[in-house]
Specification:
Length: about 170
């Protein structure tokens, strides 16, 4: 389980990166592509998709950072890591799909990276427990049917890089 939880954390990080990449590619494309004499960035539905990607990225990033904080401080983190993995992977699939929609027909071509983002995010949804498993786990924790075990091993206390150099000298 310890190894599985570490894997879940890295999958959450990767999925968060897919959300960011989908958002960045969509922003760049929307600011360049013109239809009917205007940039598609001016179209309300394109703005909505980009706004949703931004919100999903910020949410997934914060969940991932929280899980990392709990890990680094030696606190129980299975619940936070599961939540970060579940939400980041679900939202990465949504962001990649919306990025393809922003790109229109170009979204399916190899000329733009967004088609690859959609393929990549599908595996992350399955790795280290499917979204269905994480949904059930989160429900069990919320209902009190499952309790979180304390962390098996903590990390050594963190100190700033300058303090480590001074301690060695």
């Amino acid at each position: 389980m310890f190894a599985l939880e570490q894997g879940r954390y890295t999958v959450a990080a990767g999925a968060t990166g897919v959300i960011r990449a989908s958002r960045d590619a969509s922003v760049s494309y929307a600011l360049q592509r013109e239809t009917f004499g205007t940039k598609i960035a001016n179209h309300q539905l394109v703005k909505q998709k980009i706004a949703e990607m931004e919100a999903d990225y910020q949410m997934a990033h914060l969940l991932w950072l929280r899980a990392g904080y709990l890990k680094n401080t030696g606190q129980a983190n299975a619940r936070a890591t599961s939540l970060a993995k579940w939400q980041a992977t679900v939202r990465s699939e949504k962001a990649a799909s919306m990025a393809i929609e922003v790109h229109g027909a170009n979204g399916y071509s190899n000329d733009y990276p967004v088609e690859r983002y959609l393929r990549n995010c599908k595996a992350a949804i399955i790795y280290e427990g499917t979204r269905d498993i994480h949904t059930l786990m989160q429900a069990d924790w919320a209902l009190g049917l499952k309790s979180e075990k304390s962390a098996r091993k903590g990390l050594p206390p963190w100190s700033p890089p300058d303090a480590r150099v001074a301690a060695v000298d």
